[in-house]
Amino acid sequence: MHPYELHRIEPGSAVDLSAIDPGRTPGLSGPESQERAAAAALHAENILAMQDLQYRLWAESQRSVLVVLQGMDTAGKDGTIRHVFGALNPQGVRVEGFKQPTPEELAHDYLWRVHRKTPGHGRIVVFNRSHYEDVLVVRVHGLVPEDVWRRRYEEINAFERLLAGSGTTILKVFLHISKGEQKQRLQARLDEPDKLWKFSMGDLAERKRWAEYQEAYTDALSRCSTEHAPWFVVPADSKWYRNWAISSIVRRALEEMDPRPPRAEIDPSKIHIE
Amino acid sequence: MHPYELHRIEPGSAVDLSAIDPGRTPGLSGPESQERAAAAALHAENILAMQDLQYRLWAESQRSVLVVLQGMDTAGKDGTIRHVFGALNPQGVRVEGFKQPTPEELAHDYLWRVHRKTPGHGRIVVFNRSHYEDVLVVRVHGLVPEDVWRRRYEEINAFERLLAGSGTTILKVFLHISKGEQKQRLQARLDEPDKLWKFSMGDLAERKRWAEYQEAYTDALSRCSTEHAPWFVVPADSKWYRNWAISSIVRRALEEMDPRPPRAEIDPSKIHIE
Question: How far is A214 from chain B (nearest CA, A)?
Fold first, then answer.
């Protein structure tokens, strides 16, 4: 089975994150060294295909792609951006991060700042965190009352339906890591001097709320995986598996869009360049 | 000599574009096949160095880089973006294009829309065309009176001084092609079905004003190459030369910035991850 089907959350179904092992590598087989080599080779093929598809998307300039990346700290959002989107033409791809909202952003509804960053025709935009934080960190820390965040699932579905209806293919990826893997990755930031600048004490505070986050993710994934904007839960303890799975999902979506350069309205044989 | 010095317009000097052969390849030597191989190898080295420097710029997050690309149609702005900036981490690099201004943009001064797109800390932004169009196409087509565009050179210098003063390294590159080379590249768009969508009859109209554009460029390059925001005139008839020259210039500028990750304020040995 293809990673697109393997990891897609069926719209209307309830996700059980505890039943999905973040260390598994479905879609591949054999001993680990063999799986790893296969994933690397297939990932490289995906990248080449994505480059061609991106060119056609840009030339067509009628539709767009929005990739939402979510996950706990150290889940691999930055690494995914580098390894899956790093080889695309920077003219047609943009990464948008969403951190703590500014006072101006807080003076608007929570989708305002997100809407401004959605992709225009021909473009691919990657959200490094997104409007889903408004039903994740906001819920876990009780930043708004429960009735407010509860109605957001429907608001988000409506917002994403709007985008999809105007030609945006939406792919939402949850990078699923285990609590043990996060510990190792945080420890690596402490142990390697070159990575120490990435370490934040705040990450430890969030880690203490692991179970609450998993619960909040479970609801977001279950309530907001729709036909027009599906969620994918990608096992992400193995970086090589994650890279291949995500490039496979993006490639598949682009292939289904099948973008084509517009037909020229001129007859090239009749044009003389002086 | 290094491309940084070879192509930099000395502040205060008058540029004579007609004296700069767009087909030459200074800084390299030997028969063309040898020059081409050397340029490709050195360019690949530059890209690896730029990736490391970009990481450090991002980690430091105190300064930024703005690269302005200008040139006649088909001069290679898109190709430069792909070949020189395409291998950087998309999270830290952004490409901004400036086409015909919108009504909202026209309701402001000409630097308003540009200022909004300048790089934040840790970031590299590439302008595909820029505020220089306001002393190029605007001048050639007489879109504003002469006294208005004439005072823009000083306004631009002051604007760029502001950016430089707040930690932005500015590199402005004019992709210098010959009129004959442009003819070949336009013809290729007509001859290759895959490229036909790029062809625009408007390009032929602009081509007729070649001499006026060269004059407008001469003034912009002469008046706006400053210590804080130098112009580089890069011979661009050979794409492989152009790529190497520009990656060399960007690499040199990043090396001179010498960005460094911030010193951590924590003692990693005292932290225990539960």
Answer: 17
Structural domain boundaries, residue B153: 31-261
End-to-end Cα distance, chain B: 56
Task: Give the pLDDT band (50/70/90) at residue B265.
Answer: confident
Q: What is the pLDDT of residue B132?
A: 98
Q: Could you read off the pLDDT of A257-272 as tens digits, one per residue? A: 999 998 878 889 899 9
Query: Strands B231-235 and B124-128, how do they pair?
Result: unpaired
Domain of residue A236, CATH code: 3.40.50.300
CA angle (B183, B25, B83) in 5-degree steps: 70
Residue A115: inside a domain, yes or no? Answer: yes
What beta strand segments (E) does chain A contain? Answer: 64-71, 93-97, 124-128, 168-176, 231-235
Rounded Cα distance between B274 and B271, Å, is 10
* Alpha-carbon distances of A255 from B3, B201, B257, rounded to whole Å: 42, 31, 42
Residue B91 lies in a domain: yes
Tokens of B182: 């442009």
Q: Which of A162, A161, A164, A100 is nearest to A134 (CA)?
A: A100
How do B124-128 and B64-71 pair as beta strands?
parallel
Q: Are A271 and B190 within 8 A, CB to CB?
A: yes
Q: Cβ contacts of residue A240 below 8 Å, gap of 6+? A: A36, A39, A40, A43
Closest CA to A224 of A171, A168, A166: A171
- A166 inside domain: yes
Q: Do B90 and A89 touch (CB under 8 A)?
A: no
Test mutation, A190, A191, A267, A270, chain B, max B CBs within 10 A: A190
What angle do helix axes B239-257 and B32-60 make, rounded to 10 degrees?
A: 30
What torsion do the CA atoms of B207, B182, A123, B47 make, to the nearest 10 degrees? Answer: -140
Residue-wise pLDDT for A206-243, tens only, equals 999 999 999 999 999 999 999 999 999 999 999 999 99
> What pLDDT was estimated at residue A151?
97
Counting Cα atoms < 13 Å in the Cβ hemisphere of A211 gives 0
Q: ipTM score of the complex? A: 0.89
Using CB atoms, pick whichever of B78, B199, B274 lies closest to residue A266.
B199
Whether A196 sits inside 8 A of B264 (CB atoms) is yes
Count of structural domains, chain B = 1
Model pLDDT for residues B134-157, shown as the tens digit of each residue: 999 999 999 999 999 999 999 999
Query: A229 and A170 in contact (C-beta within 8 Å)?
Result: yes
B66 within 8 A of B171, measured Cβ to Cβ = yes
In a domain, A99, yes or no: yes
